[in-house]
Amino acid sequence: MKALDSKFVKKILIAKALKHLSIKDLAKLSGVNHVTMSKILSGERTIVHQSTFDKLSDWLLTEDK
Length: 65
Prior knowledge:
65 residues, Cro/C1-type_HTH, HTH cro/C1-type domain-containing protein, 434 Repressor (Amino-terminal Domain), mainly alpha
């Protein structure tokens, strides 16, 4: 399990806004379940499986290019 800090979630929210993505679109692109994604972005879930963190991190890295 991995704790998500607010900076990490904020980076996801900024990338989501810049790309004009819905939560479902973001979930599909990152490979994370849309319900999980919604809970992460709302702050309801702050601890996730390592695999979920890795998917989000990988997506952020590809979006930064």
